[in-house]
From TrEMBL:
InterPro entries: Asp/hSer_DH_NAD-bd, HDH, HDH_cat, HDH_CS, NAD(P)-bd_dom_sf. It holds the Pfam family NAD_binding_3. This is Homoserine dehydrogenase. It is an enzyme of class 1 (oxidoreductase). Residues 136-314 form the Homoserine dehydrogenase catalytic domain. The keyword Ribonucleoprotein does not apply. Transmembrane segments: none annotated. Keywords: Amino-acid biosynthesis, Methionine biosynthesis, NADP, Oxidoreductase, Sodium, Threonine biosynthesis. NADPH binds at residue 104. Belongs to the homoserine dehydrogenase family. L-homoserine binds at residue 189.
Length: 409
C-alpha cells in the first residue's frame, strides 16, 4: 500500500492531538484513502523536552529540514501567531504539498493569498479547524453553497467567553471570578484579551465571511465588543424575563453589502443558542432553500480540534487541486439598522426619552426593555451617553412584554 507522508508543524495541544489521532485511526484513514497515512516529521521548539513520539518520526527545530524531505505530501500547521506560520505554509505550497491549518489569526489575515497560491500550484488548503473546533461548519458551507444561497450566519465561536458567561449566570459570580475559573481550568490564557474582548471570534467571523459570501466586511467597520462589560446585575435582571447573555458573531448580507458584528446579545428559550453552555460552540446557517441549520459541539480541546484537522486531511488528499468555492449572490435582507426590535437598555433616563423610543417595561433600576431600531438607539446614545444597550434576538421578542407599555409623564 502506498503512503501519504505528513509533517506536523508544532507539537502543542493541537499538534499532539493530530499525531495521536493519526496513530489511533490509521485503519480508518487507510480504508477511506486507500493509502496509509504516516507522520514523517514534526517541527518543535525545544528539542530537549521529552515527548511521546515514535523513534522513526523525524523531529527537528529547523523548518528547512522538513521542507527538504524526499517525500512530503501534506503539512499540518499547528503553531500560533501570523509568523512564521504564513511563511512556512507559502514555502510548503510552492513545493507542491497540501496544507492544513488550525491558525485562525494567520488565516484570517492571509487565507485568501494562501488559497490563491494553492490554486496556482494545484494543491489544496484545509482550514476547518480555524473556526469552531470540532464543528464541521466549513464542510457544511461547502455543501450548502452548491445550491443554497446563504443569507446569514450566526455563531458562538469562542468557548472561553461562553464558559465565563455560563459561570457568571449559574454560579452568580462576577466576571473576574469566572475568568479566574476559566484560567484554572485551562480554557483561558494568562492574558485572556483575545478571547474576552472578541478578537478570536472576530478572526473566525472573517474566515466564515470569505467562505459564505466571497468577501469580507471592512475590518474597522465591524462592531466588535467583548464580554467584559457584562455584570452580575445585568445577568440577574435579564434572567427575570427569561433571557441569557450570549457572545454572538453575526454575518448578514444587508443592502448588497456584508455586515458583521461580534458582541454580547440576549436570547430567549426559543433561540437555537439558548442552551449552548460552557465551552461549547454553535453555528446557525440561514439559507434560502434549507432554512436554518444549527451545528453544535466542542469548540476547542485536543481531540475536537484534531478531528477537524483529520477530516481536512481526508478532504485535501481526495482533492486534485484547491477547489474554489462558487459563491452565489445571497438574498438581500432588509437593513437591520432600521429594523424595529426589542432591546435591553441600561442607564436610560425615561423622562428624557424621545418619542421614537418605545419604553415597554422597566425590569430593574434604570434597566428597560425598549422597542426601537438600531439607528434610533445610536441617536439616543448621543443624547444619553451613559446608556448601554443589548439586542434581544430571536422569536422570543414577541413574548417579552406582558404588561402595558411604560407611560412616561
Amino acid at each position: 500500500m502506498s503512503v501519504i507522508k505528513v509533517a506536523i508543524l508544532g507539537f502543542g495541544t493541537v499538534g499532539e492531538g493530530v499525531y495521536r489521532t493519526i496513530q489511533s485511526h490509521s485503519d480508518e484513514l487507510s480504508a477511506v484513502l486507500g493509502k496509509k497515512v504516516e507522520v514523517a516529521a514534526i517541527l518543535i521548539k525545544n528539542k530537549d523536552r521529552k515527548r511521546n513520539i515514535h523513534d522513526e518520526v523525524f523531529v527537528t527545530t529547523n523548518f528547512e529540514e522538513i521542507l527538504q524531505l524526499p517525500q512530503l505530501d501534506v503539512v499540518v500547521e499547528a503553531i500560533v501567531d501570523k509568523e512564521p506560520a504564513f511563511t512556512y505554509l507559502k514555502n510548503v505550497i510552492q513545493r507542491g504539498c497540501h496544507v492544513i491549518t488550525a491558525n485562525k489569526e494567520m488565516f484570517a489575515h492571509h487565507g485568501k493569498e494562501l488559497l490563491e497560491l494553492a490554486e496556482k500550484n494545484s494543491v489544496s488548503v484545509g482550514f476547518e479547524a480555524t473556526v469552531a473546533g470540532g464543528i464541521p461548519v466549513i464542510q457544511t458551507l461547502r455543501q450548502l453553497l452548491k445550491i443554497n444561497r446563504v443569507q446569514q450566519i450566526e455563531g458562538i465561536l469562542n468557548g472561553t467567553s461562553n464558559f465565563i458567561l455560563t459561570e457568571m449566570r449559574e454560579k452568580k459570580q462576577s466576571f473576574e471570578e469566572s475568568l479566574l475559573q476559566a484560567q484554572e481550568n485551562g480554557y483561558a490564557e494568562a492574558n485572556p484579551t483575545n478571547d474576552v474582548e472578541g478578537f478570536d471570534a472576530f478572526y473566525k467571523t472573517m474566515i466564515l465571511s470569505q467562505i459564505a459570501f466571497g468577501v469580507e466586511p471592512e475590518w474597522d467597520e465591524v462592531e466588535r465588543e467583548g464580554i467584559t462589560s457584562i455584570t452580575s446585575e445585568l445577568m440577574e435582571t435579564a434572567g427575570k424575563i427569561g433571557l441569557k447573555f450570549k457572545h454572538i458573531a453575526s454575518l448578514i448580507n444587508e443592502g448588497n453589502q456584508v455586515k458583521a458584528s461580534v458582541k454580547p446579545v440576549l436570547v430567549g428559550s426559543e433561540h437555537p443558542f439558548y442552551h449552548v453552555e460552557g465551552v461549547e460552540n454553535a453555528v446557525a446557517v440561514h439559507s434560502d432553500l434549507v432554512g436554518r441549520i444549527t451545528l453544535q459541539g466542542p469548540g476547542a480541546g485536543m481531540f475536537p480540534t484534531a478531528s477537524a484537522v483529520i477530516e481536512d486531511l481526508v478532504y485535501v488528499c481526495q482533492s486534485s487541486s484547491s477547489k474554489k468555492l462558487t459563491v452565489k449572490t445571497s438574498s438581500v435582507l432588509p437593513n437591520q439598522h432600521k429594523k424595529i426590535k426589542y432591546w435591553l437598555v441600561q442607564g436610560l433616563i425615561p423622562h428624557n426619552c424621545p418619542p421614537f423610543i418605545s419604553l415597554e417595561e422597566e425590569i430593574g433600576e434604570g434597566i428597560f426593555v425598549v422597542k426601537a431600531s438600531k439607528d434610533d438607539l445610536n441617536h439616543l446614545e448621543k443624547q444619553q451617553t451613559a446608556i448601554r444597550y443589548f439586542s434581544i434576538e430571536g422569536e422570543f421578542q414577541s413574548k417579552i412584554v406582558s404588561k402595558e407599555s411604560v407611560t412616561v409623564n
